[in-house]
């Protein structure tokens, strides 16, 4: 394969309740059939949900789209997956087809980049690029997004892994703490 291969996400339809089994089967088949250069990631779209029952916070994992699995695949041919990758995914036990396919062996449409970003954010996986921000605690920053847009704040803590800073902003004469993403601040004041 050449280095010019693009990647795209496709939605695979499965039997409801078999999403994790399909994920495991597909990951295994990818390795055993030598398709690791064409099938990259397999994800079940889930998110962590917290509920309060009897005064206790309980956390559970909920499947956002029962019956569907996301597969990241190489798209070297005009935005379409290869025939080999299509065959491996389509013939994985538990897979009933691709979303966006017109049937009769036609190739499906991939998800749009904005759809992928939205799904990744819902699942707690940032699709955003990592920002390298040179800031330090005590530094004054300008907020460029969100409810405090246009205001200045003072950095109280920095979390490079989450790409967030905690800053205090003066609102009605009181210091108010807020969490801001690296993309939501400007250090050039």
TrEMBL record:
SUPFAM superfamilies: N-utilization substance G protein NusG, N-terminal domain (SSF82679), Translation proteins SH3-like domain (SSF50104). It comes from the Bacteria. InterPro entries: KOW, NGN, NGN-like_dom, NGN_dom_sf, NusG-like, Rib_uL2_dom2, Transcrpt_antiterm_NusG, Translation_prot_SH3-like_sf. Keywords: Transcription, Transcription antitermination, Transcription regulation, Transcription termination. Residues 134-161 form the KOW domain. Residues 6-123 form the NusG-like N-terminal domain. SMART domains: KOW, NGN. PANTHER family: RHO-INTERACTING TRANSCRIPTION TERMINATION FACTOR NUSG, TRANSCRIPTION TERMINATION_ANTITERMINATION PROTEIN NUSG. Belongs to the NusG family. Participates in transcription elongation, termination and antitermination. This is Transcription termination/antitermination protein NusG.
């Amino acid at each position: 394969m050449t280095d010019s291969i693009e990647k795209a996400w496709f939605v695979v339809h499965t039997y409801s309740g078999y999403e994790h089994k399909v994920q495991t089967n597909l990951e295994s088949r990818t390795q055993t059939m030598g398709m690791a250069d064409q099938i990259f990631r397999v994800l079940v779209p889930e998110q962590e949900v917290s509920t309060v029952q009897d005064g206790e916070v309980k956390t559970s994992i909920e499947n956002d789209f029962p019956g569907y699995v996301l597969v990241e695949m190489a798209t070297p041919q005009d935005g379409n997956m290869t025939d080999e990758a299509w065959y491996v995914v389509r013939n994985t036990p538990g897979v009933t087809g691709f979303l966006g396919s017109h049937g009769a062996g036609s190739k499906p449409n991939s998800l749009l980049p904005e759809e992928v970003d939205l799904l990744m954010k819902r699942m707690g996986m940032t699709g955003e690029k990592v920002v390298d921000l040179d800031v330090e605690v005590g530094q004054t920053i300008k907020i460029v997004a969100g409810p405090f847009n246009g205001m200045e704040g003072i950095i109280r803590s920095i979390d490079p892994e989450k790409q967030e800073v905690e800053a205090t902003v003066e609102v009605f004469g009181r210091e108010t703490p807020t969490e801001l993403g690296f993309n939501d601040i400007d250090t050039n004041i």
